[in-house]
Specification:
mainly alpha, three-stranded parallel sheet, single chain
């Protein structure tokens, strides 16, 4: 997702006040950088880009914005620390961190405090996304933002609208991360419900395409039935969904498990009971242990079918 988001960030730049930005890209996996630069060349934007060999070099370029998409809280903390500690101390323009990673609200608040403690000119916004790989590719993501002021929210909108269709202000620092965890807790349960229904329908002799078509004009209609249907036959009929590609290229089972763990950790901190989310975590943990962690989380259908 991060690669597609970065391409859109660099290419969808018409008619906004930041159209003259230059971009520096970094990934600890050099192969990802090579792949990205090839994609950028194909898109005709390689002249806008340069690659940084490390975080220190990136920071010393004194960036106006740092937009990042990372898989874990630990990775997000490491990158913010590696950049903010190496920003030029004499700069008064400030650096605005936009974190599209799904991390815990507590870590988001911690990173906001850390960035602001270095300089009052710096700022940090948690801005996790919803929309999956398709949304990242089509620049139709939804951004859930937690930021310290309306001024900051206004400042980040031109960049985020290059990558998405909706930029929502959820509240203070950490609120974007909180909303994302709530969304994914509901999404996991939603997907499991659709998987169970598609499995039962097929066992009862119903054509998966017919079942999906009926569900998508009935009360069961949802993202997991309409956009990312877990049944390969239904997904091919609909024309979208990772299951049509052997569950490749979607939102990984291991990543969903990570988000469920974060949601349940937050629920413990707040004294909230989440029995359905607890069951979802158990099922996705079992699927991950079965070796399905890199497959789209709709692969739960195959797991429930014993495959």
């Amino acid at each position: 997702m991060g690669m597609q988001m970065a391409l859109n960030l660099a290419t969808q730049r018409e008619n906004d006040e930041l159209s003259d930005l230059q971009f520096t890209v970094y990934d600890m996996n050099e192969a990802n950088i090579v792949k990205f630069m090839k994609e950028a060349e194909s898109a005709g934007i390689s002249n806008l880009l340069q690659a940084a060999p490390d975080l220190k070099t990136l920071a010393e370029a004194n960036p106006d914005f740092v937009v990042k998409s990372l898989p874990t809280c630990e990775a997000s903390e490491a990158v913010v620390s590696g950049i903010v500690s190496n920003l030029p101390p004499s700069s008064s323009k400030g650096c605005l961190f936009i974190d599209t990673s799904t991390i815990s609200p507590a870590v988001s608040k911690k990173l906001h405090r850390q960035v602001k403690s270095i300089s009052p000119h710096h700022d940090y916004v948690d801005a996790p996304v919803s929309g999956g790989v398709k949304g990242a590719t089509d620049a139709s993501l939804t951004f859930m933002t937690g930021c310290s002021s309306e001024e900051t929210f206004t400042k980040i909108q031109p960049l985020l609208k290059r990558m998405g269709k909706a930029v929502l202000h959820c509240g203070e620092s950490g609120s974007g991360s909180a909303v994302k965890l709530c969304n994914n807790a509901a999404l996991a349960a939603q997907m499991i419900g659709i998987c169970e229904a598609m499995s039962l329908g097929e066992s009862l002799g119903v054509d998966p395409t017919v079942l999906a078509d009926v569900m998508n004009v009935s009360t069961a209609k949802c993202w997991s039935s309409e956009v990312n249907n877990p049944h390969p036959v239904a997904a091919k009929g609909i024309g979208s969904g990772a299951s049509a590609n052997d569950y490749e290229g979607g939102f990984g089972t291991a990543l969903m498990l990570k988000d469920l763990n974060l949601a349940l950790d937050a629920s413990v901190e707040e004294g909230k009971s989440m029995p359905v989310t607890s069951l979802s975590r158990q099922l996705y943990s079992l699927a991950d242990n079965r070796g399905l962690g890199r497959k789209d989380f709709g692969v739960m259908l195959q797991f429930l079918n014993g495959k």
